[in-house]
Specification:
The protein is α+β, with helices and mostly antiparallel strands. About 15% of the residues lie in helices and about 45% in strands. It binds copper (II) ion.
């Protein structure tokens, strides 16, 4: 009898785990040659979900910035030098225009979907 109820508890825990919302993810975008790069290629857009975090790593020997004025996902990571990464967690669904304040040609979009 006890053995059977243990099985029920374990089954219940597994079911609860699978029913839980997906864990939030972390993405890495590299700033290289005045471009936003992911997996070695320039990217124009990145699809994420609410709660996901995007880290921006400066891999150029000069200062970059990352900011967006796309409310309510607006943010400003300030200026940071080579080999420094700053990150932002997206809390609202929507399309986010991401730019570098130093280099007007550096642009990408982050599309945030609901969980
Ligand atoms: Cu820049």
């Amino acid at each position: 009898m006890i053995r059977r109820s243990m099985k029920t508890v374990v089954f219940g825990l597994c079911a609860a785990l699978f029913a839980a919302p997906a864990l939030s993810r972390e993405y890495l975008v590299v700033q290289k040659d005045r471009k936003f790069v992911m997996d070695g290629k320039e990217i124009a857009a990145l699809q994420v979900k609410v709660g996901d975090t995007v880290s921006f790593q400066n891999s150029d020997p000069f200062i970059h910035n990352v900011f967006s004025e796309s409310a309510p996902n607006d943010f400003d990571l300030g200026a940071f030098p080579m080999n420094v990464a700053e990150s932002h967690t997206f809390q609202h669904p929507g399309e986010v225009d991401v730019k570098c304040a130093m280099h007007g040609e550096m642009k990408m979009k982050i599309i945030v979907s609901a969980q």
